[in-house]
């Protein structure tokens, strides 16, 4: 009889402890409110998109989970608490609560492009919950009326999503860099790889000068398409053999092309046959080294 009482006492003690642990694991989780269909967001005007917020949250299992990433127009103030009433039960949103969320700005036209490009992915548009949870893709807008959407994606669908996001935000330097910083450690890299057109591209640096206001060195690179066909968007130039020199205005580092870890920039638009364009380069060079660059040029979709 004493053993039974002892066991029963321990069971009673363990129940509240287990509840507390589950509360920590899934903090602030409430029964999700009704989501709006993806088509409601596709129908939003540019003016309505001024208040749209988009959030990416890693919801899988990892010893070192990446920070959540959120973006909205610069004219709007991010308020991630607006997503909380729409959280699904039993999904781990701890990265939103306990780790500082990374943010960047995207204008309404970029958000519209994101919605349209992501809208070609049926498994994302469906707004369901994958059996193997990796990433939450969520949207919230307060006009016309509160509307929210969320899709919980597996590895394959999350990879497809990041591919569309990279394409949609190719000219958003801050956004592209932060997308890359989230996707690369998770291996969310599409099987498609960009085309290496380095053999058909000429890259020439103009004179390097010191910007006394910033303390960094600036120059301009001219990229010429020497082939007979246009370079598909996005056109990227990656920089190698930098030593202690750092490309200050890089939008990311390569993780889908070799060698990995090279800073890169995207050109504005495509590049027709025989055409040239210029791009500004901003280098941090604390050791005053000679800036001698090895470059590669990549075109088309796929992680750099």
Number of domains: 2
Number of extended strands: 15
Q: What is the typical, i.e. mean, pLDDT?
A: 85
Q: Specify the oligomeric state.
A: single chain
End-to-end separation in angstroms reads: 68 Å
Return residue spans where pLDDT drops below 50 for at least 5 consecutive residues: 1-32
Principal-axis shape equals globular
Q: By helix and strand content, what is the structural category?
A: alpha+beta
Compute the number of helices.
7
Q: What is the H/E order?
A: HHEEHEHHEEHHEEEEEEEEEE
Write down the Rg: 23 Å
Helix proportion of residues, in percent?
Answer: 25-40%
Strand order of the largest sheet: 3-2-1-4-5
Strand composition percent? 25-35%
Helices, strands, pairings?
Elements: H1 2-25, H2 38-42, E1 53-58, E2 69-72, H3 94-98, E3 102-105, H4 108-118, H5 122-125, E4 135-141, E5 147-153, H6 155-168, H7 173-186, E6 195-196, E7 201-205, E8 209-211, E9 216-225, E10 235-240, E11 246-247, E12 252-253, E13 263-266, E14 276-284, E15 294-299
Parallel strand pairs: 2-3
Antiparallel strand pairs: 1-2, 1-4, 4-5, 6-15, 7-9, 8-9, 9-14, 10-13, 10-15, 11-14, 12-13
Helix pairs in contact: 4-6, 6-7
């Amino acid at each position: 009889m004493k053993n039974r009482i002892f066991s029963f006492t321990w069971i009673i003690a363990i129940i509240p402890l287990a509840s507390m642990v589950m509360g920590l694991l899934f903090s602030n989780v409430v029964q999700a409110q009704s989501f709006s269909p993806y088509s409601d967001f596709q129908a939003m005007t540019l003016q309505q998109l001024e208040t749209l917020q988009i959030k990416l949250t890693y919801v899988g299992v990892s010893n070192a989970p990446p920070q959540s990433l959120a973006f909205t127009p610069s004219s709007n103030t991010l308020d991630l608490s607006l997503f909380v009433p729409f959280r699904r039960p039993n999904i781990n949103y701890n990265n939103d609560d306990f780790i500082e969320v990374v943010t960047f700005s995207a204008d309404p036209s970029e958000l519209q492009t994101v919605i349209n490009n992501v809208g070609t992915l049926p498994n994302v548009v469906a707004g369901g919950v994958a059996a193997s949870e990796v990433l939450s893709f969520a949207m919230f807008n307060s006009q016309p009326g509160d509307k929210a959407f969320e899709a919980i994606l597996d590895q394959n669908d999350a990879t497809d999503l990041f591919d569309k996001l990279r394409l949609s935000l190719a000219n958003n330097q801050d956004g592209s860099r932060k997308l890359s910083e989230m996707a690369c450690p998770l291996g969310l890299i599409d099987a498609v790889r960009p085309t290496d057109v380095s053999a058909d591209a000429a890259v020439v640096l103009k004179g390097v000068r010191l910007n006394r206001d910033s303390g960094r060195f600036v120059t301009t690179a001219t990229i010429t398409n020497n082939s007979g066909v246009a370079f598909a968007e996005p056109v990227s130039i990656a920089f190698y053999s930098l030593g202690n020199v750092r490309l200050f205005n890089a939008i990311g580092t390569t993780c889908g092309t070799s060698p990995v870890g090279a800073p890169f920039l995207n050109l504005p638009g495509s590049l027709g046959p025989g055409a040239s364009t210029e791009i500004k380069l901003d280098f941090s060079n604390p050791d005053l080294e000679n800036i001698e660059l090895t470059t590669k040029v990549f075109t088309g979709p796929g992680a750099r």
